[in-house]
Amino acid sequence: MMLRGQHPSHHAPGRLGRQLLHAGLVLFAFAQLFPLLWVFLYSIQKSGDLFGPELLKLPAEPQWGNYARAWTDGRILRYGWNSLIVVTASTVVSTALSFCMAYAIARMRWKLKSFALGAITLGMVIPIHTTLLPNFIWFGWFGLVDTRIGLVIPYVAFTLSFNTLIYLGPLQNLPPSLEEAALIDGVSWPRILWSVVLPLATPATVTVSVTTFLTNWNEFIMANTYLATEELRTLPFSIIRFQGQYSSDYAVQFACMVIVALPALVIYLWFSKRIMAGATAGAIKG
Amino acid sequence: MQSRRRGTRRPRARSPFENRGVIAALVLPGVAVLVFALVVPLGFSIYYSLTDWAGFGDYRRIGIANYREILFEDPVFWRSLWNVLLLMLVTIFIQNPLAFALAAVLSRISERLSRILRTVYFIPAVLSLVIVAKLWVDILNPNVGILNKLLIAVGLDAVAMSWLSDPRTALWAVIWIIVWQGFGWALLFYYAGLMTVPREIEEAARIDGATWLQTYTRVIIPYLAPVISGVIVIDVVSSMKQMELIYLSTAGGPGQLTQFIGVYLYQKAFVAGEYGYGNALSVLFVLVSVGLTLVVQRLLRALPEDAKGPEGTKGLEGPKEP
After folding, report:
1. Which terminus of chain B, N or C, has less C-beta within 10 A?
2. Residue B15, Cβ neighbours under 10 Å: how many?
């Protein structure tokens, strides 16, 4: 990132060209956001308004009641709470385990290291969907189907590979002298990892935990497959609920979509720099 | 003799970084989770793929009959693979160049505007797939959707149609949704790659009198070859993995036209009640995913490497599926 910074391009187009370019870019951004804007606009109108011929319609009087109905009928609180528990647990466990694995690969010396790294990268290729069928039987043996733990385990497993690779680069770049000094002072390994290494890897920890949180927050197919109990279902079900129940009540459905999208959007905007850095590391670093 | 043997047994002074107990404590919990949630299920899949189990009741072991049926008598399987391939080609040859071009533009405008735009362009990638699917199902809806209203408004009534259920458009509509959702990732990867291009090599190209187009085709793109390869491998993996967006928009219809393998195995097992058959599809799914990824990596690595890019991408390190 340091290499380029903002330098005026040597092929800088003229002022007019530049303005056109900016206009085009902003227009594209608008096009990208338009579907979301459309959903929001109609979420505060009467459902019938969507059936009118006009392309877009500004609400005459905003129907905020749609949100109240989406909130109660979509069971946002119940499902949101369930999501929060499952996602927080899987994020904490996945972050901790990937930190440990990455540290062992980055710093420790052992024979199976390169094999382990290969297996981890391979783990990223395997689609989550291939485990949907067998897990019914296998997790069933332990009574894990239709439980929160039964979701947390695959959520951890399917984020572990990526997270380990994210941690790997930053941990490899830390000088080992700090740990060596601590070891000579007789500090125990858990303490070294917790109070020496982990604080130095904070940016990676933020990236790992935020991306894991978002991924699992948005996860649908596993939750859909394993959770039969109404009281355990996670947030994406709020939207699914409306499809049967109020299939023509678009305004409430749209309100529900806005409510469900909002937390992820806020987290994304808050941490966008770290999320992008993480994705970047995934693409460029080894 | 005695003492010498003891001597060889005495542990030599080990570095603390070779402490086996510590290594095991660090690695085993993660490995245990991977084995429990990934490896063992795969074993179960292989076992049940050799049966005719319906998901309940008794079953017989029928050898490789499921595989034989899939490979030789199941046009839907081949259809679903073909759709995956088509999606791959679209992402690699249409989405990627567009994302690269946009990333190149973003790398040349003021950092402030660039950051705002990047943040906006990436938004679809962080939305839940349930929301993305529902969003586009509504936009493409023949009655309430804005696409048809737009077409009618500009006098193209004849083109207005039921995009996701019309056999002529369904597949392209689904591919569009997937590409819309994934565009931000491609853009982000290329932007990050472009940021690693040292200014000097561009300067040198300019001094040699290269036009901006030549600078890109002869200098920057070759320099970024490893990044481009990495993104292509990611495209291959993520095209294979598409499931939710299809499941929630067309569910493979109309008439299996938009079937993708992830959706197909799910429906076979849970809707059609052919659990054994679904598991055989699952096993093939893993084999094709891993095989194709390795082949594409091998192919890309075999390309002439006339440029010394940034740290070579090993390719597999893709994004987490959003």
Report:
1. N
2. 11
Instruction: Give the pTM.
Output: 0.88
Judged by average pLDDT, the poorest of A1-10, B88-97, B272-281, B300-309 is A1-10
Number of helices (H), then strands (E), belonging to chain B: the values are 18, 0
Interchain CB distance below 8 Å, A236 and B197: no
Among candidates B120, B290, B313 on the partner chain, residue whose Cβ is nearest the Cβ of A32: B120
Region of A187 (left: φ > 0; alpha: ψ -120 to 50; beta: rest) is beta
Tokens of B170: 């369904």
Does any CB of chain B come closer than 8 Å to the CB of residue A31? no
Predicted confidence band of residue B11 (pLDDT cuts 50, 70, 90): low
Residue identified by tokens 């735009």 is B117
ipTM, two decimals, is 0.87
Radius of gyration of chain A (CA): 24
Compute the nearest-CA separation of B74 from chain A (Å): 19
Contact B283 A135 (CB under 8 A): no
- Describe the crossing of helices A76-106 and A113-125 by its angle, rounded to 10 degrees: 150
Residue A137 vs residues B45, B75, B263: alpha-carbon distances, Å: 10, 29, 20
Say whether the peptide bond before residue A176 is cis (omega within 30 degrees of 0).
Answer: no
Q: In 3D, which of B37, B182, B129 has the Cα closest to residue A214?
A: B129
In this predicted structure, the answer to whether residue A6 has a pLDDT above a threshold of 70 is no
Strand partners, B51: B61
Which pLDDT score is estimated for B1? 41
Q: Which two tokens stand for residue A286?
A: 């080894």
Cα–Cα distance measured from residue A167 to residue B239, given in angstroms and rounded to the nearest whole number: 26
Chain A residues with CB-CB distance to B106 below 8 A: 25
User: DSSP letter string over B17-64?
Assistant: GG-HHHHHHHHHHHHHHHIIIIIHHHHHHHHHHTB---SSS---B-TT
Write the pLDDT tens digit of every residue in B204-219.
Answer: 888 888 888 888 988 8
Instruction: Identify the three-state secondary structure at position B320.
Output: coil
Q: Collapsing DSSP states into helix, strand and coil, what is residue A124?
A: helix
With H, G, I as helix, E, B as strand and everything else as coil, classify residue A46: coil
CA–CA dist A85, A88 (Å, integer): 5
- Neighbouring CB atoms inside 10 A of B138's CB total 22
Q: CA-to-CA distance for B102 and B106, rounded, in angstroms?
A: 6
pLDDT exceeds 60 at position B310 = no
Residues of chain B in contact with residue A276, where contact means CB-CB under 8 angstroms, are 118, 122, 188, 192
Instruction: Report the amino acid identity of residue B55.
Output: G
Query: Are the C-beta atoms of A250 and B144 separated by less than 8 Å?
Result: yes
pLDDT at B199: 86
Give the C-alpha separation, B261 to B252, whole Å: 9
Cα(A61)–Cα(A82) distance, rounded to whole angstroms?
34
Q: Is the pLDDT of residue B320 over 60?
A: no
User: Which residues are paired to B61 by β-bridges?
Assistant: B51
* φ, ψ (nearest 5 deg) of residue B15: -70, 145
How far apart are the C-alpha atoms of B165 and B174, rounded to whole Å?
A: 10
* Helix H or strand E segment including B214: helix B212-214
- Per the CB < 8 Å rule, is A286 touching B317? yes
H or E element that contains B233: helix B225-241
